[in-house]
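Course assignment 3, question 2. Fill in each field.
Student: A.L.
Task: Predict the tertiary structure for the chain below.
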Amino acid sequence: MASRQRVGRRSALPAAGSGRRGRGNQKTPGGLLAGERGTWRKKWTDRLPVALIFPNTYAVAASNLGWQLVYDLLNEHPAVVAERFVLAAAGDRPLSLESGRPLTDFALVCYSLSFEGDSLALLELLAAGGLTLEAAARDDDHPLVIGGGVGVWLNPEPLAPATDLFILGEAEVALPPVLQFLVEQWPRLGRRLLPRLAAAFSACYVPGLYHPSYDEQGRLLAMTVEGDAPTRVVPALLREPEVAGYSRLLSPQAEFSDLFLVELGRGCSRACRFCAAGFIYRPPRLWSPAAIRAALAHCPPEIQRVGLLGMEMAAPETLAAISGLIAERGKSLSFSSLRADALTPALLELLAASRIKTAVLAPDGASQRLRRIINKGLSEEAVLRAGEELAAIGVTTLKLYCMLGLPGEEDGDLLELVGMIRRLKGRLLALGRSRGRLTEIQLSVSSFVPKPWTPFQYHPFAGVAELSRRLKLLQGELAGEANVRISAEAPDKAYFQAVVARGDRRLGLALIAMAAGEKRGNWRRQLSELGIDPAWYASRPRAEGEIFPWEIVDPGLTARFLAAEYKRALAGKSGQGCRVGACKACGVCDG
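Answer field:
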């Protein structure tokens, strides 16, 4: 294992570059950087070396704006050199993309977790890179392991046993002061700094200073805090950026290849009860038109497609102005999904001009009743009308996203979804006959995973067997329907996400053992052999008043509000959207 001093001496290795940004090349693991725009090349001499991990494939990592932002924030500091790591091929040693160095050459090992399902892959990557996984077993000859990303913002506890420091919140605000502190301490980094970080920076969470205890049923009883560390950790939020978030890396191998992404804001005012982003990012923030224009100015002239993130909460006039700017620059528009009840004539005109062939609508709930329970506020007629309007401007593939296993879901709800698809097909068929071109319907089905910091954090996961039965019901009802296709995520994958999403440190230690040990059987069997019952984490109903592991984080939301919203959902009552500054119901604007 590399020591602090050894890391410093390794600055004599061949330089990775001049410190300029540019295109990548083939001389990286697997040639992943071939054709990449925005690669940093910096010399190591007298610089703090930082590894930046995204525990998924390069294609997924290179499309993540948060990871791109952190990569830039790190390398923009003149005293830092940051290089990236992604999942390597099975059996391969992880090496940095920029210079092919191992993890043990770096003084700081940072990771960004966006998805709970990547937690085990992260630990396996750290183990394959030669790191000791348990933070308590590492000394000052080991790199400091630092975690961030929305996955740990929601619940850091499953990865707490492996992590020295979490930096919670939005990187633009949270990272720079912590990075400057670490640079000033370099090369004398060590665990002695962790209590100082916890006391000095409100977004810093040092798990080693917090000690959980549990009751006879295994539920969290209390969290004892050492020294001057805060009782709870407050994530940092960005308020009014001069430049909106945008694509800082572009790669033909990315999931969104040659697509320039721009954020319209963060969070969402719709308050769908299943959606963590609608709660954890409160208050929702729309960026100013000037900030969005400044982001669009960074789009390379050769990139022709612009993707807007956050269209679901942008005002029609804002969308119209941005759409006009995109059109003026000769660019076409792309998007992740559209709000079915917010398609304006101006937006449809721009979509038509962009020659959009695939459009995405997200009813989320299978029936009108379920959409009321989840507070979606979307009628069937709105979905049908939006489908017709999109087909009329030339869309040839219409994707519908829906979840199985939502609170209160019954077979009748699924049959209502089948009926809606058939009615939509009928309308599209009539339109297609008049135009001589049919629009295909693609139904994408995922399993509902209860998330921390949402009203459904109290609700049990439906279970693999029941979700599989409901999926087969849907597939059977739609079998043989011409121009209708159905795809689905495996319920077992969602089950693992549900376990980790509401996990604690005991689960985290089991994940470490799984990552470091030999693989015997599936993940459920491995956890069982380690004394962990997955169903206890995923499928156990939570009671109001129970202390949750993730409540070490304080995003401002009150347990009273979330519990009340859960009760309203079970009663079939809709709720209000987030009205920034106009109410104090959830606790965020009262803090």
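Instructor remarks: The first strand starts at residue 20 and ends at 23. The chain has a mean pLDDT of 91.
Grade: pending
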